[in-house]
Structure formats: C-alpha cells, structure tokens
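Example 530.
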Amino acid sequence: MDRRTFLHLTGTTALVTLAAPALVGCAGADRPAWTKGDPFALGVAAGDPTPDGFVLWTRLAPDPLSADPATPGGLSVGNIGIGYEIATDPALRDIVRRGSAIAEAAHAHSVHLEVSGLAPGRPYWYRFTSGNAQSRIGRAMTLPALGARVDKLRFAFVSCANYEIGYFSAYRHLADEQPDLVLFLGDYIYEYMERRRPTVRMHSDGVEATTLPTYRNRYAQYRLDPDLQRLHAVAPMLVTWDDHEVDNDYVGEWSMRFIDPAVFLKRRAVAYQAFYEHMPLRPDRYRSGPTGPAIRLHDRFAFGDLVEFAVLDPRQYRSRQACPIPPNRGGGHLETIASCPELIEPARSFLGAAQEGWLMDGFTRSPARWNVIAQSTLMAQWRQRMENKEISFWTEDWNGYEPSRTRLLHHLHDARVTNPVVIGGDIHSFWANDLKLDFNDPKSPTIATEFVGSSITSFGPPHEQFLTYLPDNPHVRFFEARHRGYVAVDLTRQSMTTQFRNVSDVRLLDAGISTLKNFTVEHGRAGVQI
Ligand code: FE
Ligand code: CA
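Predicted structure in complex with calcium ion:
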C-alpha cells in the first residue's frame, strides 16, 4: 500500500459518517471494503458518443439521500479510484478494456469516464467495480464511422418526469423496448414540492431544491427509481434540459419570481453543477464562466449518413420572456401582439445568437438523410383565441420568440436541409405538427415536421379547452393532452415512424402500456402523413 494513500484514507476516516465504508486503500484503484450501503445504488449511465468511444457515468453514494450537506451520498472522503470493465457482450465475457477512473469528491463522487479507441457503430457493455462492490451492467454505444452507411436506428424521446405526480412506468416500458438511444428533452427532475395537486409519493427532503445538497439529493432520489435506473442501464442517452432542472420558467439569469439576477445566478450555478454531476457528460462541457458554472450542452451527433441530431439548449442563452409584469407574471403568460409588441421584436432570441449561428451553420454542412432538432418546447405556432376573440400566444415557448422561429424555419428551407424533424416536450401533451414557412398562411409550404412527446408523469394542459383552439391552427394535425407516455421512433432511409405510447395510469406502480397513435414521415416529404 502506498503510504500517501494510506494516510489520506485513514486521515479521513475520522470524518466518515453513518453509511461510509471502512476504507482500505491500495495502489491503483482504491479498494474500499464497503461495509454499509451499496456504493452503486444510483446505477450507471452512458452518453456523449463518438465513433470511437463514449462517456460512462456512475456516482458513489452508499447513503444516497444523506441529509448532511458535508457528506453527499454518505461520503466525506477525497477522490476515490474505482475500476471499470468494457466488453463486447452483455455478460461481460469478452472484455476489451479494463482500467481505473476517478470518483471526484468535488463532484459528489461522480465519475465521468471518457472512453476512446473502440470500434465504431456498435454496442458495448460495461460495469464499475470498487473493492467488494460492483455496479449493475450497462449498455453503451459508439457512433458509426463518419459518413458510414446506416440503414436504421430505433430511438425514443422522453420529458417531464415529476416524481411526486406518478410512478415511472413509462420509463420501464421504454426500457423493455430496448431502444438504441434515448433522448431526454428536459424536466428530468422537478425542483419544487407539489403542494396543490394529488401526489403518489414525495420528494424525500420535503423542500424545494435551491442549494447544492438539495439538488444533488433530488437527482439521487430520481436515480434510485428502479424504472429510470433500468432505462439508463439499457440505453445510452443524449440529454438537454428545460426549466425544472433549475427553477420553473427561468431563462438565462431571469427567474419568473423577479429574483435579483445576481442572487438567482448563485442558485443556477449549484443546479447546473448537480445536473453535470448526474449526467454522462464530457468533463470539458462543464466550465466556469463569469456568472458561475456554464455547461456547453448543445451539440450534434451523427449516426453515419442516416441521421444527425442537433441537441439544443433552450434555456441558458435565451432572451427574457416578453413583457414581464411584476410581481407574478415573469415567466409564461398569454399575450397578444397588440398588448405585447415585444413578442415580435427581432433582436430577442430563443437560442442566443451564438447557438443560433452554430445550429444553422451545422445544417448547411450536414450530409445526413434526416436532421432531427432535439429541444424541449413546442415550436409550432399555437394561436389561443380568447373570449374577446383576440389571438394570444404563450410567452414561454417558441411562440414567445416568433422571429427566432421564423429565422430557423426559413433557414431550413433556404439551405434545403434534408428531412428536418423537430422533437420536443415541456407541454405535457402529444402533438404532431406541420411546421410552415409562414404560419399565417395555410397555403404556405410545410418545411419540417414536429413531434412533441407527452410527459412521463406531469399533468397535461386542459384538453377540451385546447381542442377549441384547433380550428385556428390547421398545421396541428394531432393533439392529445389526456395521456402520459413517450415517443418511440423507427427510422429508416425511407421513413420515420413515430409511435405515441401511453401508460394506463401514472398512479399505478404496474401501469400498462399501449400505442395511442402512429405517424409516418416519408423521405423527401415534410409533414405528418395521417
Ligand atoms: Fe415539464
Ligand atoms: Ca418545462
């Protein structure tokens, strides 16, 4: 045993609390004898694929919901070295890589292991080990070689999983489908406590997450859910966030509750940190900026010549919602263009100028047959006719940033982007939409197709009321707010088939699954085929 390791570990033993292990360090990966609690209770995850590797995630937490802020996950020790194995088969018989990784104390003993040098376009299986403990086995995947011919991909997208509102049966049924890839499109956690509506279970600490320990424990509680944990083990992920990873309806430095931006940014900083600590993201995505930690989340992932996913960040760089009125109309609210001309102010941006430029530039160069824009909120125009007959728009999604949307759709058209499809969440309902070059002219060409998944559990908007808006929105081809679930997609060179799956009841642990509706988009023909 290395003397420094020995001193380091025994030196910290005095601080070890309830669930911490008796640590016995050795050279290489540390070999603690875990005496209480499973250090891998939070499971594993894979993401950020490249043609020769990916990022593998775990977080050591033998006491995952430790209430003591000084011992996140029940650990008060420094960095811990752990082992990993990567194999070409699910039973880990054919191991192609073994090594050690660091569980960083500064990041709640999370691991963000960057693996490279593997073969392109294939699945791998992996496991972490620490002393007498080992994690469950997870499945990862490398991207196909750049430009390689790819004939099919099965992916799914999910959003809006409020732990208190229901059980995660949708995640369980999706895991059963064994998709190649799952896109998480925001509201992975909910930061608040549900006080008004019926719940089936509670956030463990009984408080709104606002601090590093409370955000960490929120993620830990979600990752303890067996259905979510299994989905992460079954399928690698791409991820973006929405508002509830931080605070309802926040954008940039602006909170809907009109908190001083200097104060709010401190909260955002710890929320971003906890997000990073619980996602399989490359360490260089996490940066310190002038306003605290920033995460470079937007990125693109090409599956050979079949599909390129542009994953967007709809929150960090966005202009403030239009026409905020203190004290309580700071986030989403309805406005008419007459009451709020700021809605059509061209300088306001949904993505921020840099991300918008990056997105458009990427499309211009994309050789992929399908171009999927993965983001969190409704992009189609949604005209809501009020009692006085005036048309109003929700300020919180793309409807609050009409010039941004127009710039993007015009670019898709002008650059002749092949088969653009937008996928999203946030609005807790299923939608299939034609995205028009000019939404105010029904005869205008359809530029792209949009599918919005429902929520894993979160309550939908008023279904009957929204149905009355449909005549003013002929480009909305399908709308359904009464069901929770996810969207499974079969992509081939000729078509994209999206299946809207709904669970029977989020209040039941063993809810069933059924298919609400299927849609097909044909290669070369934008728009929903019904
Ligand atoms: Fe949501
Ligand atoms: Ca949201």
